[in-house]
Known about the structure:
Helix content: 55-70%
Order of helices and strands: HEEEEEEEHH
Radius of gyration: 68 Å
Mean pLDDT: 77
Largest sheet: 5 strands, antiparallel
Structural class: alpha+beta
Number of strands: 7
Low-confidence stretches: 1-32
Distance between the termini: 231 Å
Amino acid sequence: xxxxxxxxxxxxxxxxxxxxxxxxxxxxxxxxxxxxxxxxxxxxxxxxxxxxxxxxxxxxxxxxxxxxxxxxxxxxxxxxxxxxxxxxxxxxxxxxxxxxxxxxxxxxxxxxxxxxxxxxxxxxxxxxxxxxxxxxxxxxxxxxxxxxxxxxxxxxxxxxxxxxxxxxxxxxxxxxxxxxxxxxxxxxxxxxxxxxxxxxxxxxxxxxxxxxxxxxxxxxxxxxxxxxxxxxxxxxxxxx
Length: 240
């Protein structure tokens, strides 16, 4: 009798403890409210939950599982108990636990830690992205300055090229003028040579004319002297 009362008190205490710890927790399956086989589930967000050797509060407690311990569902009976296994020091421990204490997602504390870790990774990536953006902005500014300088240099080169083309055009024009002047100079030289030849020939003609004229004058003088001879005054004085 005492053993029966003691056993009943243990069952009632376990029910009260489990019931108090599992208030407000979500059931495993959305439709049936029971855990499903071959899916990983988690111990509810409680301090410790007993894992028993058989489905019932009167059976031996194998271990106390901390809240958030991942377990694998093996079997679910109609009395609200779930057979499960979990890994402990390279050993698979199998036992039974009330289905109501099992959740289909990690407990809030674990999810919060995961979210904090995820947020930390995101912040780290964000900082890296901001650093990369800062580096890219700096490179963009450098490239923009180089592009601006290149445009200025290109403008100067275009201006110099235009001046060179203008000078080249003038040089071509001057070259053509020089060729024309050279041709005119050659023509003038040719004309000058012809004039010199003509002058030389004219000089010879003049000299011949002067020679002939001088000869004619001399001959005329001789003839005049011949015909108009002055009387010999010496003979006249001789007669006196």
